Amino acid sequence: MARARALDAAGKLDVQTAPIMSQIAMRQSLLSPQAGRIPPEQVVRMVVPEAQQKDAYKELQESQQMNKARDNILESFDRLTKINTVGNRLASPIQSARQVAAIKDPLVAQLSKETAADSLNRTLSF
Predict the structure, then answer these.
(1) pTM, entire model
(2) Distances (CA, A) of 78 to 53, 67, 85, 90, 98
C-alpha cells in the first residue's frame, strides 16, 4: 500500500514538474551553440510571457528594420570606398563623381528620413 502511494506521489510530482522541465529545456537550447540558428520570433514565443509578446514582436521588428538600414548604409560606404580612390578620381573624375552621387544621394535621403522619424518619435514620446 505504501509503495502504491509513493508511486502515485511520484507520478503527481512528474506532472507538476513537467512544465518547469520543459521551460528549462527550452532555455538550455537557447544557450547552446546552435542557438544562433533559432529565429528570433521563436525565441520570443518561448521566453517572453504571452501578455508581453505583442510588444516584444514590435520591438523585434523595429530592431530588424534598424539592422537592415545599418547594413544598407555600411554597404553603401563600402561601395563608396571602392570607388573613391586616387586612381579612380584621376583616371575618370566625371565617372567617379557620378558613381559617388548615385550612391550618396539615396544614402543621404535615407539617413534624413530615419533621423526625422527618430526625432519625431522622441518628440511624441515626451
Answers:
(1) 0.51
(2) 37, 16, 12, 20, 16
